[in-house]
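Following up on my earlier message about BV8. Here are the inputs again, as you asked, copied directly from the submission form:
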Amino acid sequence: MDATPDHREARARVESAESIVVFTGAGISAESGIPTYRGEGGVWRQYRAEDLATMDAFRRDPDLVWEWYGERRQAMAECDPGPGHRALAALERRVGDGFLLVTQNIDNLHRRAGSERILEIHGNAFRTVCSGCGRGPGGYETSVPSTTTCVHCGDRLRPDVVWFGEPLDPTVIGAAFQAAAECQVLLCIGSSLLVRPAASLPEIAIEAGADIIEVNPEPTWLTARARWSFQEQAGRALPLIAG
Ligand code: BV8
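Thanks, got it. Here's what our run produced:
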């Protein structure tokens, strides 16, 4: 697919930058077959993510919550990284230490595409931790664990994700905010920018004077503040501006 003058201009800015933060949401994985949260087909069994992805739901019905995550783990494991994920891994290899990927996604697709300089600010659906002592079996599991009781303390095991109403790891979100405050370019890919505190990241970058590049078929509150806004799929725009 041929680049437009805007793609070429945005690519030149990306290539001239010494510090780049990329901020991704569910939209970058939509083309891989993972439903977004707010798009059609984004709900599961008539539940909303905000109703199931909470500690209250887990306390009330841990088996239902595990069933939901087990289904999502299997569905995500069957999907593959797309051209957008791969373009970002290539950009990281070119930029090196000046690059950081901050993702809201828990689907592990950035890691599978080869991204390493990554902060998973809402966790990773394939990791399991204990609700009580925080320890876990380690590794990545593609289904519900055979036992959901912690071998160390007997408390319940849970997916290693941040639920609504839970605080983000202060070290992780602090590093993400620090990088946004120091970057020259922030790419914001596939996010409706509705969930806080994650959605503060582009605001911090704007305050710091960074150039904003947004890729999203739908406009968001950031669109009017972006130096370049590509209202197209991540799989089309990212190979042209970053890959
Ligand atoms: C906290 C893991 C405090 C779990 C997730 C009222 C006002 C403001 C805030 C709040 C409020 N009430 C409550 C809050 C706080 C709440 C919040 O922000 N709620 C929202 C709903 C209003 N936040 C929290 O609860 C956070 N914690 O605040 O704690 C605290 C402090 C101290 C002590 C105790 C407590 C925790 C939030 C984390 C929740 N966990 N995920 C799981 O997923 O199972 S959030 C989850 O939803 C994702 O991680 C992501 O962050 C969010 C989904 O957003 P997006 O990724 O943007 O996806 P979405 O579907 O919305 O949009 C997709 C976009 O892609 C669209 O724009 C679409 O156009 C575009 N697109 C589609 N196709 C493509 C594309 N783009 C490019 N290419 C394509 N092909």
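One observation from looking it over: Strands lie at 20-24, 99-103, 118-120, 123-130, 157-161, 185-189, 211-215, 228-230. Hope that helps, and feel free to reply on this thread.
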